[in-house]
TrEMBL record:
Domain Sodium symporter small subunit: residue ranges: 2-67
Keyword set, alphabetical order: Membrane, Transmembrane, Transmembrane helix
Transmembrane regions listed in the UniProt entry: 7-24, 36-56
Species of the source: Altererythrobacter epoxidivorans
Keyword Membrane carried by entry: yes
Lineage: Bacteria, Pseudomonadati, Pseudomonadota, Alphaproteobacteria, Sphingomonadales
Designated name of the protein: Sodium:solute symporter associated protein
Xref: Pfam families: DUF4212 (PF13937)
Amino acid sequence: MLVTLMAIWFVVSFGAGILFRPFLDQFMIGGFPLGFWFAQQGSIYVFIGLIFYYTWKMKKIEREFDLDD
């Protein structure tokens, strides 16, 4: 699970912000190119979503093995 979440983090931050930026800049969100938006704000939203997913999944695993508080 950790490797998968870290891979998503890498793809969003490095991929969408740097590698895929020329392609993403063809599209606009709020008057700004999509590549710029991902580099500045979109990746933060994805990171927050990953944090919430990680905590939800870890609580589920802890309950399954009777390790919760």
